Structure formats: C-alpha cells, structure tokens
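Input/output pair, single chain:
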Amino acid sequence: EAIDINIPIGTRIVAQAKGEIIGNYSRASYDKKWKRFYNYWKETRQEEFADTTQPASWADFKKMCKDKLGRGTAARILRELESKDRPMDLSGVMLIVRYTSDDGEAYDFYYQHVDSFTQEWRRGDEVQPGQSILLAGDTAIFDSPAHLHLSIRSVPNPKNKKRQYGPKVDPEVL
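Output:
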C-alpha cells in the first residue's frame, strides 16, 4: 500500500509528527548509482550508447534510455538491472521516519522519489511536526511525473531502532 502525490519539483515536504530518522538514501548515493547504470549500459549496450556522453542528471539519463531503447525496453532493462541490486534503490532519494504514538504504536513512513534532503539527515536525528525535511523530485527509476511516493509500515518492535518490515499500512486510512 502506498500513495503517489503529484507535486512540483522543489516543493517542501514536512514531517507529520515528532519522529526519528531511521534510514536514508541520499542524493550523493543516488547520483553515484545512476552514473554506474550509465557506465554499465555504455559497456554492455555499445551499439546503442556508443555515441553518448554521460548525461548531467538522472532525468536526462532516463530520457536518453527512452530515446535510444524505446519506453518499454528502457523500463524493462532498468527493472532487470535494479533486481540485481538493493531493492531500496528503486525508490530514488528517500528518507525513512519513525513516528511513535502516545500509546506506543510505531509507524515507519517511507518518503520516496524526492529530490533532496533539506539538511544532512543521519540515523537517530529527530524531526518535529511541520519541520521541512525534504524537497519533492523525480528520482523514481521509471519515467513518471514528479511526485512523492509515500508508503507506511507498522513497526512490530518499536524499541528496536533499526528498519523493520512490518505489515504495510494504507496511507489513506491514516
């Protein structure tokens, strides 16, 4: 369960409540990743990419793939390449915030496909309600309009500060 909220690139995204950062995937990590994709494709698909130079951004790389390989083919190959890597990389730049209610229930909010953090977030950092934490972007692996992909998981053991994969929660219900 998740929702996609179409919003312009650069829109500030705020924390819903007091919470703690439990995971992140930064812009620097993301940029390193897509550049690795480009180099991999340049080596393995020499015929299509021989005349190319490294694109300036992920958006430019996605467009290049679509132009060179066609929309469906580019998406299939990206999916195939991603399946060999960590699954969270499909999410682009992301931040995971754990919110714990007064009665002890905890939920991990996965803010995905964003452009960047509003500051350098580290695991254990605290966020406050209404605090600007991210800027909206289009770092989804597939060609899609800029949006925030929000997924929520319940946390089986809130005392454990590591990321846990409890059941998904429908964001519309919360």
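The beta strands are 2-6, 12-14, 19-25, 93-100, 106-114, 116-117, 126-127, 132-135, 147-154, 168-169. DSSP finds four helices and ten strands in the chain.
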